[in-house]
Amino acid sequence: ITAQTSPPTERSEALFTRARTVTPGGVNSPVRAFKSVGGTPRFIREAHGAYLTDADGTRFIDYIGSWGPMILGHDHPAVREAISDALQYGTSFGAPGEREVELAELVTRLTHTDKVRFTSSGTEATMSALRLARGFTGRKLIVKFRGNYHGHADGLLVEAGSGLMTNLDGGLGAAAPSSAGVPEEYAALTLVSEYNDPQGLDTLMAERGAEVAAVIFEPVVGNAGVLIPTPEFLEALHRVQNAGALLIADEVMTGFRLSLNGATGRLGLRPDLICWGKIIGGGLPVGAYGGRAEVMDFVSPQGPVYQAGTLSGNPLAMAAGLATLRTLEADPDLYTRLETYTTRLSDGLKTLAAEAGVPVSVNQIGSMLTPFFQDAPHGSVRSYTDAARSDTRAFAAWFQGLLSRGIYWAPSQFESIFVSAAHTGVELDATLQAVRAALADLNGT
Ligand code: PMP
Predict the structure, then answer these.
(1) Which of 204, 248, 333, 341 is most enclosed, with most CB atoms within 10 A?
(2) Which stretch of 107-111, 155-159, 251-255 has the lowest confidence by average pLDDT?
(3) How far is CA 34 from CA 44, 321, 377, 403, 426, in A?
(4) Distance CA 11, CA 69 (A)
């Protein structure tokens, strides 16, 4: 084993300095700044297959996959060809086109929904789905779960996960905005319950159910790290439908990732509305929400709930989404391969952490995985409160150990990683070798 010398970061450092002058924190989305793990964020020059290359020319095995969209790997030939084909015909029409119809047909067929509306981001999808639920039910309140993240619309920045987990003060009780600039009056319309706490949800619904327009949830959480729902919690979620509230599955992360029909298909859910993003756009900006016709027909111009977008249904984005979903559908073993790879990574992590005597509790489902740096049985981390017990300093040190060895893990304890179809045994072996070394670093050996 050769001594570890960290790859150069001069160009990333220089870019970060310039970026901070002209962009808040130097980044266009907070987690990219490496705030919770420290060090210089790597500015990425290019991405192919399972690899990222940074501005200094260092190649990394990529485990964030642009935070989910790149399920086929970066620069997949089918997606690249579809985009360049679409490019010949113009980049935006501001009028409907055939690709929107094709993608809507494909999405509704794969997800057993009647109708879908495309947006340009996951945030717009969840924000719009909630407006629709309020318009449809004539009710005001929404319920979300602590540490779940549904994008950055005002009413959803309440006890939110993802980049906000590092900001939460840990106080339970009244719903607190997770961001400055969100009026308490908005936050007061969002009730918060604990994930995987069926009694808590039942109690909340018993008290306020008649005022609740929608309960929105991550069917598998990625934004507090991976949290997997219990069957009892899923039953309690479906009970909210008896109170006349719409159940909204936020599948922005899990859609087309945990199966061709997302977590909904994998876990047998019956939501009223589903939100998508990420994979549905194949790496270009797309979100969507859909459900049964009776509800979706409330959306403008058919119904009274307004929602719009200059670039919604953008032809390049539709082309990338179509190519991605068609490739997924054409390869029935793909999800099994992703899961096999991720299970091996998960098993390797468990074994290596045990050997190194580093307390780690692993949650994994399909191609999503989080090692929580805490002393708890594997699979036992089930809520925000559980996740928050993790040793974020140990995680940060481990993350840096991986990064310096060419493994680009998610730069926060409270995120999932995403394995792609481009990850093979070669990447798995290299990753586990780096994991072993990074764990050894933690012990100072
Ligand atoms: N919902 C979930 C579950 C997400 O994971 C995300 C983004 N990570 C969003 C919504 C917001 O999507 P976007 O970043 O595209 O606005």
Answers:
(1) 248
(2) 155-159
(3) 14, 29, 28, 12, 27
(4) 27
> Domains in the chain, start-ordered, CATH in brackets?
10-63+333-442 (3.90.1150.10), 77-330 (3.40.640.10)
- Please provide residue 313's backbone torsions phi and psi, each rounded to the nearest 5 degrees: 75, 20
Instruction: Output the ligand 1 site: residues, CB below 6 A.
Output: 67, 121-123, 126, 149-151, 162, 218, 222-223, 250, 252-253, 277, 287
Q: Which candidate, 178, 154, 146, places its Cα nearest to that of 164?
A: 178
The answer to whether the complex's ipTM is over 0.95 is: yes
Cα-to-chain-centroid distance, residue 344? 22
Hey, what are 307's tokens? 């929602």
DSSP 298: T
Average pLDDT across the chain, whole number: 95
Give the tens place of pLDDT for each residue, 114-146.
Answer: 999 999 999 999 999 999 999 999 999 999 999
DSSP state of 33: G
Residue type, 144: K
Which of 28, 124, 149, 256 for mutating ligand 1's site (highest number of atoms within 8 Å of CB)? 149
3-class secondary structure per residue, 147-201: CCCCCCCHHHCECCCHHHCCCCCCCCCCCCECCCCCCHHHHCCEEEECCCCHHHH
Q: Which two tokens stand for residue 232?
A: 């009892």
What is the dihedral sign for C-alpha 113, 119, 120, 121?
A: negative
Q: Which two tokens stand for residue 72?
A: 């086929």
Q: What is the mean pLDDT of residues 77-100?
A: 98
- What tokens appear for 359 in the block? 């307390």
pLDDT tens, position by position, 295-354: 999 999 999 999 999 999 999 999 999 999 999 999 989 999 999 999 999 999 999 999
Q: How many residues does the chain have?
A: 445
pLDDT digits (tens, 9 = 90+) for 161-208: 777 765 444 333 346 788 899 999 889 999 999 999 999 999 999 999
pLDDT at residue 445, rounded to an integer: 55
